[in-house]
Amino acid sequence: MDRPINSASPPPGIAIPRRKWLGSVLIGGALAALGGAVALLRTTGYESPSGIAVLRVLAAWQYAVVRAVARRMVAADRAEGVPSPDEVGVAEFVDAYLVEMRPAMRSDVFRLLRYVEQIAPIGSGYRRRFTELSAPEQDEVLLALEASRFDQLRAGFQALKSLVMMGYYRDSRTFSILGYGGPFVLDPAERTP
Amino acid sequence: MIVRGRELTHDFEDGADAVVVGTGAGGGMAVRELARAGLKVIALEEGGYHLPADFTQREEKMIPMLFQDRGARTTADFAIRVLMGRGVGGSTIHNTNLCKRTPDEILDLWARHFGVVGCAAQDLAPVFDEVERDLSVSEIAEPQRNPNNQVLARGVAALGLRGGPLRHNRVGCRESGFCELGCAYDAKQNVTKVLLPAALAASGQTVIMSDVRAARVLHRDGAVTGVTGTAMDAAGQPIAQVNIKAKIVVLAASAVGSAALALASGLPDPHALAGRGLRLHPGAAVAGFFDQRIDGVYGIPQSYECTELLDFAEKSDRRVWITTAFAHPIGAAASLPGFGAAHMALLRRYAHMAVLTAMVHDETEGRVTLEEGEAKLNYVIGDSDRAQLARGLHTCARILFAAGAREVVLASIPALRLTRPAEVDRITTDVVGPHKLPLLSVHPMGTLPLGEDPKKSVVKSTSEHHHVRGLFVLDGSLFPTSIGVPPQISIYTFARHLAKHAIERARA
């Protein structure tokens, strides 16, 4: 579907344009999918997140993508009393984390979210947005992204995974999953007056 | 005096004998040496000024606070995550306190191939001695070895490999295991605990300014005239201009930051050398799962090493350093392979996990460039270094099995899950390439190398720029090649050794 970004490995030390890859992927993917996927490219039709404070950086559709990805990546086992990514607030954390990120890097994340939502499903044979897929379908899309033949997409998957894991495993309610005793010092935010 | 740039209410202008840009190992040492010489020094640090009470042992707060780009910095192709310090003290705030001297063979190589003079092993030995005394460097004794490091020592012994204890700069350590998130107990003998207090005590004129991003080194007629920068508020937004006039400027903002500043300042560079020669010491991790609890997250990290694959002879085919590399929950979750239920199943065995890392003494040369005013790290690991990394990870897996691991996991794509020692041969060069395995760098170096030949080096052996009088470089940028060991003590020592030339220039 897409033009290979790194079809031949460049020699050591040679520069690769940093911010062009996702743009290339998006443009290539969008062109390839043109005709059948125009509806997907809209970012309307997303409900505003309810029950949370106003989003600082993410748009409603980006918030929905992060939340959907987190639900599949973490797959919390509710039967054992482990909190879900929604309860921990993974998407809210990602929103806050991105506030102080350099604009160029933040833009990279936004492009990645757009790719996951609008283009990646097409690569797995779906003509619906990622957030509209069933859980097994979303897993299939994420697996394809993780093992993509395009180096940069695999890197994008890893970046998204890192964000989600930071958002989830920061919460002390998740420490029991790991048998982790947690920090020794109290966070000022947790100290009672 | 400590000045928090984020609290400035108006532009800041001042004059000084010397401006030091960056306050990590090199900058911190430079500030102390210049202050002790009676000079008025102003140090500019991009990040914040943090006290031990600020180090809350929470990854999600400390990583964005203490690392460049909130911990998300990577090479330009996103293949290697590059963790670099940000804040007063630089990487000495969050490193694991490793102190390994620059190998004599490396110093000899620099003298022979790069024309570096005055930095031979015999020149530096007494300086290393002095710096190690200053920083209270000592060997981590066996009783202090945590279970993860015991696994490494046990596996090394079982296989008959070369290994031994490591030396650290820590006093009053509580063995909590949170070194990489800043020490809440102030047990690191680092820049903020040792060097800056000495600098402030030596001269009432010393100023440490946090939250100031240097924008340009000012120069005219072949000599520096000062530094201009911007103070930023807590959210990173510019709030004031900072202009310092000085006849000495010391670049000590890391191999990335110093090179980026040199490029942004339009310094004379007739051979286009600035930013070239970037080395990263790329590495990767292997996890082993044991029947018994390891609890590798607690205790002193990285207290034992395996040097079986490390030989500093020129053109050596053994260029891998092996040590432990345990991570806190967020780091572990991001590093273990896969996602979903299988990923969580691995994490449920976290307490039974030991982790080793293989770090390559790299030959690959990358380059720091500027893009839209920001540093860009162009580095694609070469085939030879990939082969070294594969060899190192292969040995890590052997060590883990020899120490009793039931399963060894490599987070490659697809993941390698090995249950028998005979399977370690599945770890080949094919599975360790960029984007096939999470790669990590914590030791950027090179980019403004020293030497006597202006066609090969950016600064002289004195660390003064070949073409700009009064401009010195005193950080890891100086190194003409990889040094193959953690660079902290080398950077301290080179800065201590070469700062005298900046002092002489200031007095001239």
Structural overview:
The complex is a heterodimer of chains A (193) and B (508). Chain A is mainly alpha-helical and 193 residues long. Chain A has a domain at 60-172. Chain A contains eight helices and no strands. Chain A starts with 19 loop residues before the first helix and ends in a 15-residue tail after the last helix. With 508 residues, chain B is α/β, with parallel strands linked by helices. In chain B, the strands form five sheets. In chain B, strands 1, 2, 3, 8, 9, 10, 11 and 22 form an eight-stranded mixed sheet that branches. Chain B has a seven-stranded antiparallel sheet with strand order 6-14-15-16-13-19-20, covered by helices on one side. The longest helix of chain B is centred in the last third of the chain and has 20 residues, at 383-402. The two termini of chain B are 26 Å apart. Chains A and B meet through helix 2, helix 4, helix 6, helix 7 and helix 8 of A and helix 2, helix 8, helix 9, strand 17 and strand 18 of B.
Fold blueprint:
The complex is a heterodimer of chains A (193) and B (508).
Chain A: H1 20-33, H2 60-74, H3 85-88, H4 90-99, H5 103-123, H6 135-146, H7 151-169, H8 175-178
Chain B: E1 2-4, E2 12-21, H1 25-36, E3 41-44, H2 59-66, E4 80-82, H3 104-114, H4 121-134, E5 137-139, H5 147-159, E6 163-165, E7 167-169, H6 191-202, E8 207-210, E9 212-220, E10 223-232, E11 238-251, H7 254-264, E12 276-278, E13 283-289, E14 304-306, E15 320-324, H8 329-335, H9 340-347, E16 353-360, E17 366-371, E18 374-378, H10 383-402, E19 407-410, E20 416-418, E21 439-441, E22 471-473, H11 488-507
Parallel strand pairs in B: 1-8, 2-3, 2-11, 3-8, 4-21, 11-22
Antiparallel strand pairs in B: 5-7, 6-14, 9-10, 10-11, 12-17, 13-16, 13-19, 14-15, 15-16, 17-18, 19-20
Helix pairs in contact in B: 1-6, 1-11, 4-11, 5-10
